[in-house]
Amino acid sequence: MSVLEMKVPSPGESITEVEIATWLVKDGDYVEKDQPIAEVDSDKATLELPAEESGVITLKAEEGDVVQVGQVVCLIDRDAQKPENSASAESPKEETKAAAPAKEAPKAEEKPAAQDSYAAGTPSPAAQKILEEKSMTPAQVKGTGRDGRITKHDAETASVPAMGTPSAGGSRSQTATKLSVLRRKLAARLVSVKNETAMLTTFNEVDMSEIFRIRKQYKEEFSAKHGVGLGFMSFFTKAVTRALKLYPDVNASIDGDFKVNYDFCDVSIAVSGPKGLMVPVLRNAENMSFRGVEANIKALAEKVRDGKITVDEMTGGTFTITNGGVFGSMLSTPIINPPQSAILGMHNIIQRPVAVNGQIEIRPMMYLAVSYDHRIIDGRESVGFLVAVKEAIDNPVEILMDGDERKALEL
Predict the structure, then answer these.
(1) How many domains does the structure of the chain reveal?
(2) What average pLDDT does this structure show over 25-39?
(3) Is residue 171 part of a domain?
(4) Predicted confidence (pLDDT) per residue in 326-376, tens digit
(5) Which of 30, 62, 84 is the last residue of a domain?
(6) Are residues 76 and 137 in the same domain?
(7) Do 130 and 214 have their domain in common?
(8) Rama region for 51: left / alpha / beta (φ>0; ψ in -120 to 50; rest)
(9) pLDDT the model gives residue 110
(10) In this structure, are residues 219 and 227 in contact, taking their beta carbons and an 8 Å threshold?
(11) C-alpha–C-alpha distance, residues 180 and 269, integer Å
């Protein structure tokens, strides 16, 4: 028998272990080469693990297990024959046509095949053993595995409700869910930032009137020509890269006793995905056009939401932009993304009365916040940086577009 030992590949530099988040196949399944068989969480991203060969698979790790890079997590018997009742290359329509004359499709005995999937409330073998030791039934546990399957961790953290008189009304249940490796790493990083940096935040507000006008005037033409929408992020990214050139200490980091300044602007853009907040990086954003920024952000955001973002695409940023305004945030103090030294927080846009040339006008206004590490960035640099961003957003045509809107938008 020719058996392949599948080992955990290295997801990226400095990553030594991953967690088996979800098995996408069952023990004993026949798998095809390159078929995704598991999702694994590292401290930076969730990645798919593809089968290295075709054959029958034997799982060697449970969902929720933390395994080392290079550790064997499953075996694939390459000599095993593909079952005849497995999915064939025929289309569903062809299968239906072939089965109809024989009138065998409605057979009741065919249905157990569907039960081979992870039905909600079904415990894994390891989980079943733990539940039996606790004298508990699967019905008393909420499964967090694939399709509601009860994992080993679910069984370990489950507890029998205390005896006594039930409450007069309302549910009093609780569920313990293990944090993913990515979420645990993020939590540790955020706590370290609060404890290890001299973080301060400065605020300002911007008038979005001109950007609203430009988008309204050119958004359809821009989208038709470039295949992407004209959003706010291109304006803010351009404003940030300009401000970083004016105040280089904001585009720096601390390495021991040294301050490291960068002559490039790799801007991290916070994107919310199924696995939480991630920060893909726009490399050399200072050289990008409005079209280039929008196209790159769209591509990276799609990768985040599809779970296809790579570790390399999320590391190495020199400054971060996060937009809490899309969730309705009016004002916040964003936390620095280490080892960077500053982060810009955007917020929601509210129509507010403001004084313009001695007159009260209703304008679309947004609050901005810059959190920075005071160890290397002084108040002058942080405030000056944010004022430079404000100037560019208040007057984008002159400052960001050199007075020519159509040329800047490549129309």
Answers:
(1) 3
(2) 90
(3) no
(4) 889 999 999 998 889 999 999 999 999 999 999 999 999 999 999 999 999
(5) 84
(6) no
(7) no
(8) beta
(9) 45
(10) no
(11) 22
Q: 242 and 133 in one domain?
A: no
Residue 222 CA to residue 215 CA, distance in Å, equals 9
CA–CA gap between residue 40 and residue 311 (Å, rounded) = 13
Highest mean pLDDT among 17-21, 114-118, 331-335: 331-335
- 152 and 266 share one domain: no
Which carries the bigger pLDDT value, residue 75 or residue 172? 75
Which CATH number is 53's domain given?
2.40.50.100
Tokens 């995905």 map to which residue? 273
The whole domain housing 39 covers 3-84
Q: The tokens of 21 are what?
A: 């988040």
N- to C-terminal Cα distance for the chain? 64
Instruction: Clarify whether residues 353 and 220 are in a common domain.
Output: yes
For residues 205 and 287, state if they share a domain: yes
Whole-angstrom distance, CA of residue 345 vs CA of residue 331? 9
Residues in the chain: 411
Q: What is the pLDDT of residues 236-276, one digit of tens each?
A: 999 999 999 999 999 999 988 899 999 999 999 998 877 77
Q: What's the pLDDT at 196?
A: 86
**Domain co-membership, 153 together with 297:** no
> Would you say the C-alpha torsion 52, 39, 306, 317 has a positive or negative sign?
negative
Structural domain includes residue 178? no
Q: Catalytic amino acids?
A: 374, 378
* CA–CA separation, 338 and 17 (whole Å): 21
352 contacts 374 by C-beta, under 8 angstroms: no
Round to whole Å and give the CA distance between 158 and 401.
59
The enclosing H or E element of 291 equals: helix 290-305
Does the residue 93 lie in any domain?
Answer: no
Phi, psi at 271, each rounded to 5°: -130, 130
Q: Are 122 and 149 in contact (CB under 8 A)?
A: yes
CATH of the domain at 308: 3.30.559.10
DSSP conformational letter for 177: -
306 or 106: which leads in pLDDT: 306
Residue in the structure block whose two tokens are 């959190």 = 371
d(CA 303, CA 300): 5
Q: Is the per-residue pLDDT at 104 higher than 60?
A: no
Mean pLDDT across 103-114: 44
pLDDT number for residue 164: 55
Residue 120 pLDDT more than 70?
A: no
